[in-house]
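2024-03-11 09:14:02 INFO receiving multi-entity request
2024-03-11 09:14:02 INFO entity count = two
2024-03-11 09:14:03 INFO echoing inputs for audit
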Amino acid sequence: MPRVRMRQHLIELVLFSTYAELRAEAARSYLGLLWWVLEPALMMGAFYLVFDVILKSGGPDYLPFLLIGLTVWQWMKSCITHGGYAIWTNLPMVRQVHLPPHVFPLIAMLSDTVKFFFIFALLLVILWCAGYPPNVAYLALPIVFAVTFLAAAGAGFVVAALVPLVPDMRFVIEQVLTVVMFLSGVVFALDKVPPPLSTIMALNPVAVLMEATRGILMYGHWPNWVGLSKVTAIALVACWLGAMFVSRLAPRYPKLAT
Amino acid sequence: MSDEILIELNNVGVAFSAQRRMSGGHFWALEDVSLQLRRGDRLGVIGRNGAGKSTLLRTIAGILAPDRGTIRRAPVSCQLLSLALGFVPHLSGRDNAVLSGLLLGLRRREIMTRLDAIREFSELGDFFEQPIAAYSAGMTMRLAFSVAIQVEPDVLLIDEVLAVGDAEFQEKSGAALRARMGEGHTVVLVSHNESQIASLCNRVIWIEHGKSVLEADRDTVFAAYHRDMHPVVNAA
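2024-03-11 09:21:47 INFO inference complete, emitting structure
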């Protein structure tokens, strides 16, 4: 098949599979689509209860701070885990059809991204009601989201390449991601951490993305472009590495047991 | 039949790891197979259980890469006929037909123009719009076959799926496949059923313990294969 035709075919396959995955997921439970929003809402409620109501560790802006952090983090995390396990869970198909394995993580990450946009729409409504109106810095959101997706996709591809070979990794990844969440200022502000440690922690790409999104949505601040550029560079390197790993290891996947 | 070689295997071997361990051994599912597939060939693959027939088919399909030897292929599409590939229980027959067709290498608009034919052939009627979770096993196989038969690669690879469903549909699906093979397509067929290969193929390759013993016209290979089989039959 000519290269262009093959690429168009793969794009069609990825888009339709993404639609199919979302549709099937909505059909699997009684409340269907509603769970895409309800599940994160319940989790946010739980965090709010623990960190603000019980521990009283929040401040005046804690509710929007937490909601934004968790919304963005859940998107990244689901891209990394779902995308990361996608080749492994699709090994039965890898054994039957000759396809670039990259399509499987991509499908998982795209459907998680569609779900994120539903949740994000709800988040915007909450923020506007809570006194954080739309502002001109919203114009930077597409850029921040593009970088966020690239960063998550990079990590997701690296994980996706390795999990089929070492399925044991799955037991560690969830724990690592929980640690990353707490180190990235998702649930509490990094300025509560003493100085030498907080400067190191602020280098974390996830922390930069959190701060950029919150700055826009809560205060109308433009993102720190230098920081964002560095994160973009890291994310692109991770994407390239992950895609290369998948390509290199592709001949081994059809021979692996699930 | 032309002399144009579409796919050529030279001393191809494919190894699998014996187990998931740091220092697992290998076993060679294919050890040394050579064959030439020309345009218009209907090549049958025969051999005992575990001889490596299915591995050979997946190697020709490009799913498995050889660990030794070489494969040369002309720029042709090559598709293993897999039934129910990518089927999702909660999606309608229609959506599954599109999904499976895409996975089998069809373009979206090609599938769209064939959806009526798929619906017709599968005899599903209004069930075509229902989630396939509500289907019986027979209905699912009918849908699966109806999609698969729409795929028209340059080289069609078939592994023992010549007829599915109840007796009536078996006849229909078998006839459709035989018709497809008679249209001058290039086909590689793996089957335990010797008479099937005898009636459908013009060339045969005989595989034994992962090695190609003989590849020639149908009658030559069957004669040699039976000479080899008979002492075993007599001893038993």
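2024-03-11 09:21:48 INFO post-check: Chain A touches chain B through 26 residues (CB under 8 Å).
2024-03-11 09:21:48 INFO post-check: The first helix of chain A runs from residue 3 to 28.
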